[in-house]
């Protein structure tokens, strides 16, 4: 393994500073000041640089913006538990990475504050919403990064960028300090070059937290110690429903090949069924939009963030309190955020709640039950991560429904609360990375990490680097 | 599922968003499409889970009901857009004639 880059020999810092001022594409929105303290030598992440998605609050003076104009100047008075744990493990937080605004999107194109491209092909998206974190890892400015995953937001960009992205079981990692979008769906999530580093990050940031009532009391196993247990005796489920119209042949082939590789490594393959898969996107977008509309009600220009009250261009519109709320939010939120707030408000409103939200929550229960039943017959489930490799920038921005359909293989894990990992599985004819996904039962991270690690030993996809420019 | 501009405007008011007529038209079209797509859930048989709205695994963790004194008040209110001393300043909640 290469020497871990220190702050001084990272090739990126000057380029990032220039990029930020010129709004050139970059994985980063901000970079922390170089620390004058001497390098840390103790801790699982001693001396290692980590990039953090800008939807996790940090209290080192660097803003936390959620890539939104409404928080562009916001400096958090507290720090996310996961970030604190990284620092306690000796990590150096070198910067905050770009994302789709308020973690709403699938391409990082919805960021109001920066542009991030796919390091493998700059005409393409890095994926989203954790596109900055995945791109930073793929480009080699860091080996380790943190993002979040609400419907695939770490797994999809990991797949598009040729990295390892892990969404833990719901409740595995404290959400304290993760800017809330969809509270019953989201988890902070590691992205790294290798399965081992993803396991290392998970071990550092996992665990119960009194500041997050949804974090689980479940003890944190030593994921690193269990990595090399191999896949002999493991049954790998292949869900027959995980094909989509528009599934790219190279992605389907890579998934099948991954299954064969695991079989040669000692696993048993078995076809399984997850019958409610076809309803996952509809269920997800109702539940997520409803929760997001509720969570984003707090941005009102009164206690923090951008306010129309202090914006000279808004003064003429402000007669009463409702004007303040409306002007603040309309000026501060981008179009996708507004779209999802409207969708969420609609499905929760009187007369529509039963037909949409309540129904979606019931279907969600059925989706979760599909997995509980499947895991009685298999240990882990293998699927493609995304229907295609990275799409072109601008290709889907004007068609929200098309953008939503990208998440078809990833939203189920969030709905069911189960863990999932995306790992590099080759490249297509355009030399774009392909990712395959392993899903596990609740608190079954050990199983999916084991299978992912075993698979990784049989190829060298994760050692490939994007062409340098 | 066809929304009208008035439908979108009514929801926007609930969500405290102000939309131009261009926005109204665009969101009307896009949201009608999304709602048309999600309407398929109506046909799913949910009779077996009729009363279940629970999501995450049960967690009985509750904080102790004890008072604490914070030392970081100034830090917490440092970002308030309009302050007057110890007060957050807002426009009148009650307007005359309301």
Describe the structure in your own words:
The complex is a heterodimer of chains A (469) and B (98). Chain A has 14 helices and 11 strands. By secondary structure, chain A is of the alpha/beta class. In chain A, helix 8 crosses helix 10. The model of chain A is unreliable at 1-21 (pLDDT under 50). Chain B is mainly alpha-helical and 98 residues long. Chain B is built from 3 helices and 2 strands; from the N terminus they run αααββ. Chain B has helices at 5-14, 21-38, 73-77, and strands at 83-84, 87-88. Chain B has a two-stranded antiparallel ribbon with strand order 1-2. The two termini of chain B are 36 Å apart. The interface between A and B is large, with 70 and 52 residues.
Q: List the secondary-structure elements of chain B in sequence, H or E.
A: HHHEE
Task: Report the structural category of chain B.
Answer: mainly alpha
Main beta sheet of chain A, described? 11 strands, mixed
Mean pLDDT of chain B: 85
Q: Which pair of chains forms the biggest interface, and how many residues does each contribute?
A: A-B, 70 and 52 residues
Q: Which strand-content bin applies to the residues of chain B?
A: under 5%
Characterize the overall form of chain A: globular
Strand adjacency order, main sheet of chain B:
1-2
- Unreliable stretches covering 5 or more consecutive residues of chain B: none
Q: C-alpha Rg of chain B, in Å?
A: 23 Å
Cα separation of the termini of chain A: 23 Å
Oligomer: heterodimer
Segments of chain A where pLDDT lies below 50 for 5+ residues?
A: 1-21
Count of alpha and pi helical runs of chain A: 14
Percent of residues in beta strands of chain A = 5-15%
Helix content of chain A: 25-40%
